[in-house]
Structure formats: C-alpha cells, structure tokens
Amino acid sequence: MAREPFYRTGGDFSFNYRTLNIYGVFMYGHDANRLPVDVTGTIIPIPIDPAGPQPTGFVTGGPAAFTGGFLQADYLIHPWLMAIMRWDAVNSWDDRINGLALNTETPFALPFHGTRNRFTPGVQFLIHANIKASFEYQWRPQQFVTVITNPITGLPTAIQPFRTNTAVGALEWVF
Q1: Domain presence at residue 155
Q2: Which domain holds residue 32?
Q3: First vs last Cα of the chain: how many Å apart?
C-alpha cells in the first residue's frame, strides 16, 4: 500500500452584471510523486506490464506541482441565445519533463509545452423551454508523439507537434 501525500488549494469567483456572467477557478496542486519499484529497487515504468516485474514498494521521485484554472464568460444576447468563451490553462513543467522521459513507455499523447491553454468559444440556442442546441469549438494545446535525442545536448527533444482541436454540436432536451 502506498500513501500518496498530495494537496490542492485554490479559489473561485463569480461576477454577474445584467446579461454578462464571468466566473472562474484557480488551483495549485502538489504531489509527492511516488514511483513503483521492484524487489531489486529498480523503478518500474508506468503503465506496469502484467508480464514484467511487479511493484513491491515505492520510492519518492521529484515532487510534481501544477497551477491552473479556467475563466469563462457567458453573455445572453437574446433570451434564447447565449454566447460563451472559456479559457482553460494548466502550468505543469513536471508533466512535460516526465512525458519526455517516459515517451517510449506510454500510449498517451504528451504535452509539447509546460503550459497548456485551451480556448473554447461557443453558442447555445434555446429552441423551446425544454430543448437546447449548442455548438462549441476547442483550440487545444499542442502535443507530441515523436521524441528524438538532441545531438548537441544529448537530451530528449519533442518534435512534430500537433493539435487535436474539436468541434462539438449538441441537442439536449428535458422531459
């Protein structure tokens, strides 16, 4: 059993003026970053391979910290039409460094920058008292899947960043 000491602290706010609503959250987090080790004390890469060595204990790695939050504005253009704009941000250089180190052992796309921003403009239509249609588009942060060794520094370097931007349309109704 591992006890992972971590904490989160932050705050939120909301401001309303006539047909404009602005609200958001800011958070700070810190983790001790426990890493699994086998019987010999060798760190086991994550995700853990069921056929490989199994963890028998944990060691403390470098602590990981992040800051982040979001800010969103909703503007009621008409009683049946609302425009929204949301900005999400997470700043975690530990994620980037760990992603570069573990790139060959994880199936996940990893952050290209330590700070990841996402912008989401959208619009919502109230079609009827119980029917709403909405559309949102998200500009997501850059990610990478290719890591090379920098010939000058000898350190891992991410190349060929890409974005997985998304468009979402929804139709919601309540009975």
Answers
A1: yes
A2: 10-173
A3: 46
The per-residue pLDDT for range 129-141, each reduced to its tens digit, is 999 999 999 988 7
Q: Is residue 5 part of a domain?
A: no
SS3 51: coil
- What's the structural domain count of the chain? 1
Overall average pLDDT of the 116-139 stretch: 94
Mean pLDDT, range 78-103, rounded to an integer:
78
Residue 2 lies in a domain: no
| pLDDT tens track for 27-66 | 999 888 788 889 998 888 777 888 888 888 888 877 788 8
Beta strands in the chain (DSSP E): 6-17, 20-31, 34-37, 57-60, 64-78, 81-91, 110-111, 115-128, 131-138, 143-144, 146-149, 156-159, 166-173
What is the pTM for the complete model shown? 0.67
Q: Looking at the domain assignment, is residue 76 inside a domain?
A: yes
Pairs from 45-53 (Cβ < 8 Å, separation ≥ 24): 45/102, 45/105, 46/102, 46/105, 46/106, 47/105, 47/106, 47/107
CATH number for 137: 2.40.160
CA-based angle 64:67:73, to the nearest 5?
A: 155
What is the rounded average pLDDT of the residues 66-94? 92
